[in-house]
């Protein structure tokens, strides 16, 4: 059983134990119950390594591999290549990013038309950002319009992007958010996920899912008992129950 599944079972058992009536659970009682939940150190190490690999912290992953003896499930050298693609998109060098993706695995874009469209859309956005409006319009007509004719959702996104050309002051443009850094980050995240999938690796780290599971479990238990909650996930400090 995975560490996530094991944790879910343990939280569910805790909830079921306290479900008979809403009662006050002291900090001492709660800590004893938590201590009874046994998770192997090896599983915790795999959880940390999964986060480092998925998020692209190659140096930290290498040091953690040496210190903990935990082997990553992919070649750490591929993380550097993946992060180079992500950085290229985040800095607006979309053509360079596309070349790097094709060097990694040309099937990624060949088999993912939505991702390729979004990269091309980002190229057009960067042309507009740099004031190359005529070039952006020509690029839209030659590269994006044909794809929009094949897919209604692509067409709608293309229309939104072309709308940027109609405003001299994009701060007053209803789709001006396309020029925000958040749009670059969104596209970079999509590329990152596609590369991870092509490497048979999860596209999302498990640790955030585990934290979401903790929040869900606490919300469920709130209906059954008053107990020491973890309100600050960063410190994981157990707060005294408020009666």
TrEMBL record:
UniProt xrefs under SMART domains: CRA (SM00757), CTLH (SM00668), LisH (SM00667)
Family annotation (PROSITE patterns): CTLH, LISH
Record InterPro entries: CRA_dom, CTLH/CRA, CTLH_C, LisH, Ubq-SigPath_Reg
Name under which the protein is recorded: CTLH domain-containing protein
Highest taxon of source: Eukaryota
UniProt-listed PANTHER family: RAN BINDING PROTEIN 9-RELATED
Domain CTLH: 78-135
């Amino acid at each position: 059983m995975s560490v996530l599944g094991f944790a879910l079972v343990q939280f569910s058992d805790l909830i079921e134990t306290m479900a008979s009536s809403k009662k006050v659970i002291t900090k001492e009682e709660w800590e004893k119950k938590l201590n009874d939940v046994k998770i192997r150190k090896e599983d915790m190490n795999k959880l940390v390594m999964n986060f480092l690999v998925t998020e692209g912290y190659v140096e930290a992953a290498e040091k953690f591999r040496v210190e903990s003896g935990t082997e990553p499930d992919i070649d750490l050298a591929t993380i550097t290549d993946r992060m180079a693609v992500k950085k290229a998109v985040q800095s607006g060098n979309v053509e360079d990013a596309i070349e790097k993706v094709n060097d990694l695995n040309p099937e990624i874009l060949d088999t993912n038309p939505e991702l390729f469209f979004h990269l091309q859309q980002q190229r057009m956005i960067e042309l507009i950002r740099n004031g190359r409006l005529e070039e952006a319009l020509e690029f839209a007509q030659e590269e994006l319009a044909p794809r929009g004719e094949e897919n209604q959702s692509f067409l709608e996104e293309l229309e939104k992007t072309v709308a940027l050309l109609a405003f001299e002051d994009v701060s007053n443009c209803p789709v001006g958010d396309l020029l925000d850094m958040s749009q670059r980050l969104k596209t970079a995240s999509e590329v990152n996920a596609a590369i991870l999938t092509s490497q048979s690796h999860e596209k999302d780290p498990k640790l955030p899912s585990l934290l979401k599971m903790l929040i869900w479990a606490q919300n469920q238990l709130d209906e059954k008992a008053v107990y020491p909650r973890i309100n600050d996930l960063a410190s994981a400090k157990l707060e005294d129950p408020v009666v």
